[in-house]
Amino acid sequence: MSGKLVVFNHPLIHHKMSLIRDEKTGTKDFRQTVSEIGMLMAYEVTRDLPTKKVEVKTPVGIAESYILKKGVVVVPILRAGLGMVDGITTLIPTAKVGHLGVYRDEVTLEPHEYYAKFPSIITDAIVLVVDPMLATGGSVKHAIDVLKAKGAKNISYVGLVGAPEGVKKIQDSHPDVNIYLAALDERLNEKGYIVPGLGDCGDRLFGTK
Ligand code: PRP
Ligand code: URA
């Protein structure tokens, strides 16, 4: 099955993206708004989740209803992916959470992994890889490589800002993976930052610069 590219077009997401793009927005508002966008995106990202029919005994009768058929695993790429987890798990409280620590070398822009821990259900679950920034795409590609090697079969990527270079890398290397973005920007600059982007997402989330 071939994956889709969805760039959200929703007034609330546009409004909140304007807030986090603004260089004057401080840590508290940045962190809260990233989480809120994660929650709004989760509603749409989960639209096609498989369901199964159940019968529920209501106080008045029997209702034919639907529940989620598969587990959901959210996998934030540390650090910045952590900023979207609360919002997503607010909508999917039963989701399990795996963690993948990856940093991008400032010079080579290559991803380096330093931590990995996943729930055992990833092989049969809907897996949402979460990282706000898709720049060269190296970090997200690495995460999908790792998850597939662990047996994950149904993977989507959820992020805030993408560059065309990153989108192409994921589509070329993992054409089965859905890509969900709140915005698709113009390009990368000479340091591998997304233009206009929002700067260094990890630093802005955690106040490290
Ligand atoms: C940032 C961002 C992505 C990566 C994107 O992480 O959160 O993981 O860069 O770049 P890429 O698409 O070119 O791989 P960073 O390496 O700065 O680590 P941090 O989240 O710990 O700050
Ligand atoms: N990582 C970020 O945090 N921002 C960018 O623009 C690119 C990579």
Structural class: alpha/beta
How far is the N terminus from the C terminus?
Answer: 42 Å
Mean pLDDT equals 97
Taking the sheet with the most strands, its summary is: 9 strands, mixed
Identify low-pLDDT runs: none
Helix amount: 25-40%
Rg for CA atoms: 17 Å
Overall geometry:
globular
What is the β-strand count?
A: 13
Question: What series of H and E elements makes up the topology?
Answer: EHHEEEHEEEEEHEHEEEH
Quaternary state of this entry equals single chain
Helical stretch count?
Answer: 6
Strand proportion, as a percent range, falls in: 25-35%
The ligands found in this model are: 1-O-pyrophosphono-5-O-phosphono-alpha-D-ribofuranose, uracil
Short description:
The chain is of the alpha/beta class and 209 residues long.
Can you tell me about this structure?
With 209 residues, the protein is α/β, with parallel strands linked by helices. It is built from six helices and 13 strands. The protein starts with a strand and ends with a helix. The model has no long low-confidence stretch (mean pLDDT 97). The structure holds 1-O-pyrophosphono-5-O-phosphono-alpha-D-ribofuranose and uracil. Residues 80, 133, 135, 193-194, 197, 200-202 line the site of uracil (URA). The site of 1-O-pyrophosphono-5-O-phosphono-alpha-D-ribofuranose (PRP) has 23 residues, from β4, β6, β9, α4 and α6.
